[in-house]
Amino acid sequence: MTELLDRWQFGVTIVYHFLFVPLTIGLAVLVAWMQTLAYRRNDADWDRLSRFFGHLFLINFALGLVTGIVQEFQFGMNWSNYSIFVGNIFGAPLAMEGLLAFFMESTFLGIWVFGRSRLSKRVHLASIWLVAAGTTISALFILAANAWMQHPVGYKVVDHKALLTDIWAVFANSTLWAEFSHTVLAAFVTASMVVLGVSAWQILRRRDVTVFVRAAKLASGFAVVCLLATITTGDLQARLMDEQQPMKMAAAEALYNTQDGASFSMLTIGNLSGQPIFQIRVPHLLSLIADLSYDGKVDGINQIQRAEAKKYGPGSYVPVIWVTYWSFRLMVGLGFVMLAVAAWVWWLCRKRSRWRLEDNRVTLWVLVATILAPFAANTFGWLFTEMGRQPWVVYGLMKTAQAISPTVGAGDVVATLAGFSVLYSVLGVVDVVLMSRAARSSLGESEDEGSGPPAAGEEVVGFVY
């Protein structure tokens, strides 16, 4: 029971935190891009847009910071056996993230917010690009730790502890670079879809229509490129997964027995482990995903279970099948929906005819609705990545049941889980109110002739510092 509660608590807090992280990474780059266009073209409209979306970035950064602190404490309190086992390895990238990346992004964020009227335009522009670099580097260090859990490298086990033997192997981990590229590109997609949705809302309200159409054109083009790249990196991840975590690959398809030329089910209605009521299948697609081979062999759940039980000892090595099956399809499906929407908007912005974006109210409302799509896709992606690894917390080395703190009882976890749920609900309301108010404001309301985005000083600095 305690293990299940610990997993729920960590799952709730990390999924909630990860709602903010991709938007922070992506918005930093898009705001920097807008400010660059303003600087190079001496364009007041791009400057206004950089301030407007910079305001959203600051609010999101603050909430992401507050929710992220909790993760560090949970490692020591709820997962002390895990911390003891991996601390020598896990601590290195986390320390680098805190001492290098976080201080870099927070320092230059302060310079960007308060230095607008005190620095030259070139230096001020450089500060937001350094913020963007800091957020991306921060993701690299965090994902280095996560990738090690997925595919441990550069270590040896001494006295039941994993000791770091090669830090360069940790950062050269093939899993890290596939995961990092996929995650960061997904973050760019998240920010692009938010910019598209907010711009669509402003256009619907007939506010600065020409300016927000320019923002939509930029965001849609960025989204199309990044979505295509995200799909490509996801394909690369699939082949690594088939090699390193074959059970996760089999669970993604609910493939119980090994097959050559395995098909892929686009949709299943009915029992995943028995005879379904209805399925839509694409012949040979799973084999193509797994190893780019039309008739390639994909190992089944039953065969992998026997092999892992023989290698690691008795027990079940099968994750929750319905979670892996549906989270994978929802992640991929939402990705293709966003690609279609972004490509359509980009075409509307490019085409010189009566079919203009600002005149297409159906498309504008669809864009407002799809603001939620990247957040859902990111969440389903992490559920698939982390729950598909179960029962391992460190693949092949430590099971989740072995990682929890032996002295923390179920009652303590229930109490803290309830507390976090209340706190995060309050923070969620705060975030929705601040973000929606900022998104609904006009470009004029988001400007400040003084030091930077006005509400940043009033609403955000208190959260950040």
Task: Characterise this structure.
With about 475 residues, the protein is mostly helical. It has helices spanning about 1-15, 20-40, 45-75, 80-115, 120-150, 165-170, 175-205, 210-245, 245-255, 285-290, 300-310, 320-350, 360-370, 370-385, 400-405, 410-440, 455-465, and strands at about 155-160, 160-165, 260, 265-270, 280, 295-300, 390-395, 400. Helices cover about 70% and strands about 5% of the residues. Strands 1-2 form a two-stranded antiparallel sheet. Strands 3-6 form a two-stranded antiparallel sheet. About 40% of the residues are buried.
Core attributes:
mainly alpha; 8 strands; disordered C terminus; 465 residues; 2 domains; 72% helix; two-stranded antiparallel sheet; two-stranded antiparallel ribbon; 17 helices
